Amino acid sequence: MSTLDNIEVDITVELGATTMPIHHLLRMGRGAVIELDATEHDPLRIYANSTLIAQGEVNVEEGHLRVVVTEKVLRLG
Questions:
Q1: Which pLDDT tens digit goes with each residue over 46-61?
Q2: The pTM is what?
Q3: Is the CB of residue 56 less than 8 Å from the CB of residue 69?
Q4: What are the phi and psi torsion angles at 48 (to 5°)?
Q5: How far, in Å, are 2, 15, 18, 64, 69 from residue 21 at the CA level?
Q6: Is 23 helix (H, G, I), strand (E, B) or coil?
Q7: Going by fewer Cβ within 10 Å, which terminus of the chain is more open, N or C?
Q8: CA-wise closest residue to 49 among 18, 8, 20
Q9: Residues whose CB is less than 8 angstroms from the CB of residue 28 and which lie 6 or more positions away in sequence, other chains included
Q10: Phi and psi of 61, rounded to 5°?
Q11: Coil/strand/helix, residue 27
Q12: Where are the domains of the chain?
């Protein structure tokens, strides 16, 4: 078995973010809406192990939700 087959990577896709007081969060019920700092036209942010690696967009194909990578983020250093 290859060494790379045993490496785990945590992938996170972020639609947007917001800051709110904890008491607002605790009062939210089912169906609550949280305003984010992004619009539907802004790219998604894709992280690997908490490091931004790419941007992308949502794609729906045959009833499946997909994230398509549109741009890799270059890290300098």
A1: 999 999 999 999 999 9
A2: 0.75
A3: yes
A4: -120, 120
A5: 47, 20, 10, 34, 33
A6: helix
A7: C
A8: 8
A9: 34
A10: -135, 125
A11: helix
A12: 3-72
